[in-house]
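Q: Protein A?
A:
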Amino acid sequence: MKALPHKTKQLFVFIAKLLVVSGAFYYIYNRLANGEQFDPHRFSTALAKPNAWFIVAAIIMLTFLNRFLEILKWKALANTLQPVSLGQSAAQVLAAVTAAIFTPNGLGEYAAKALYYKKQDAKEIVFLNLVCNGVQMIIATLAGLTGLVAFNFIYSVIPNSLLLAIIAGIGIVALIVFASRNITVKGYSLQKLFEKINALPKSVHQKNMALALFRYLSIVNQHYLLFLLFGVSIPYPVMMAAIAGIYFLGSALPNFTFIDFAVRGSVAVYFFEIIGVNEWIVVLAATLQWLLNVVLPVVAGSYFVLTFKRKL
């Protein structure tokens, strides 16, 4: 088969870059244009309150910390394959965020990171990204279940039978995974995956878990501070339990990023309405958190997508 001319390949790559960036910004535009969440008057009123700018500064700091911790996580894991600088890790993470925004469950992130490495290293990069995201998911699940149980004990937001079914379902899935670990499909098995995970240096696992924990804490505390900014004065433990439960339930089902925000937002409205928080505050807080943690990284990541050069 005749190879494509170099200039033709460059054109296809340029078109692909534009499609990724255009798709990301179309999603952002669609989200803002079709929503009625953001009210500048309410926001300016909140900023006029005493100590508001101190809270805003803390929210901005946590926005930076959230993504910076992810960059450190990826750097530690990628270094097991080859040396990666902080700047290279930042470029890969931000470009991956841009590519992942309109793909199911953020699968575009795996492909985007793999493109920064040689073709023969693609499987290893996918594996390392799986480890990176897997630890984050485990922490979110454990914290979310704990928060959901605690919140439900106080307010009974969902039937106890449903809560027990959720916990039992997770337990059954864990048992199935453990029982089927030796089943081999085309040379692959969960046992081999576990062995590959265990082969990574213990120091890398410890760093990955610590950074994932701090990243989770930065996200949920940012959400709490947004509520505080808009005058919500519910006790901190109750708010943390509600936020953790919402993150768990909102992310429990496979979906596109488009649906993820709708699901999480509707769950948040239901939970916080029970404890007396106005719906507009819940939706506005969710929208601002989306702008800070998704839109800003996508804007930065778009630069790295457009300036990307494929590893041979």
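Q: Protein B?
A:
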Amino acid sequence: MSEETTTSRRTLLGWTGAGVVLGAAAAGSAVAAVRTGNDVQPAASAGSAIAFHGPHQAGITTPVQDRLHFASFDVTTEDREELIALLKEWTEAARRMTQGRPVGEGAVGGLAEAPPDDTGEALGLQPSRLTLTVGFGPSLFRGADGKDRFGLTGQRPEALVDLPKFPGDNLDASRSGGDLCVQACADDPQVAVHAIRNLARIGFGKVAMRWSQLGFGKTSSTTPDEQTPRNLMGFKDGTHNVAGSDRAAQDKHVWVPSNDGPAWMAGGSYLVARRIRMHIETWDRTSLREQEDVFGRTKGEGAPLGRKHERDTPDFKAMKPDAHIRLSHPDNSGVTILRRGYSFTDGTDGLGRLDAGLFFIAYQRDVRDGFIPLQMRLAKTDALNEYIQHVGSAVYAVPPGVRDSGDWWGRALFGNN
């Protein structure tokens, strides 16, 4: 495959709507990867593999990849053993795909009379730093009808709270919630989409995809030596992110300690996903001065107003009281979360306006001390609210990593079956 063809394919997938689920197999030779004790790896070449086993799930503090396919699933079976079997099968498939190997026997070579184990649209693609991260939503523990389908109510962490309705929210139920989530990140969009597609195929009859979101152009970074990427408004945001190399900050703000909640969550985290629609056309007609006042940053360098560089300590007195950075910066808000957001564009809304914005992803030790107080603060007075609206929302408990070949996602939650 030529470089020109590859670039064209990736560009196309990056601008395709969330409803597209066609992908390709992440087959090919994997480059050996070693997961260090603090879950840090350099942002290596696009063909390399991220180790699957470790104390924490990859895809959290891992250097942020360029593409995203995020999927939420409803569990349709009410059989606990079937759900356990699915999680085991998903884990094995993820273990193989993240290392650039096909699912099962692969797309070819099996019985000609049976469907292949792997969809195989792009045999030969490399791992592209694929990570797969799984989370469990509140409804898995107890449904909206109050039913405890899987005997998990007593295992629901206190920190896994239903998010409140924030001022200005206009949430679409069809783009919110879900029993399970899978976050697939990779440097090749086809690899990420292929991974979600195969997990959905494996889960047929046991789970159904509730909603999904493609993302491109990472808007945050866990590697502070790199410049912070820009969002679709042209600004750098979230520059004071938790670094993948800062284990002390991770332990304080990201990972759940063993004495905080049920034992099965030790080493895990809590994920908040929000689909944030940007009113692009209104923003594009706003003066540069007002744009900079809204963010509290210069558009060119990304520096806090009154400073020279993007990571300079902000002078909050140099910006307006409702500036976004003034309200959200940890030095002023007192809240630190790990961001892994992506831009999205899903065509138009039928009125000629772009359906585009930010798919916000944040990990934290406890949403009650993280996202909830931060978003409540922003929702009330942030100047940016004139140009954005939260239209999708979900929260999940993300269990710790899969430690070895005998382990699987959620094993401790289900009683070490």
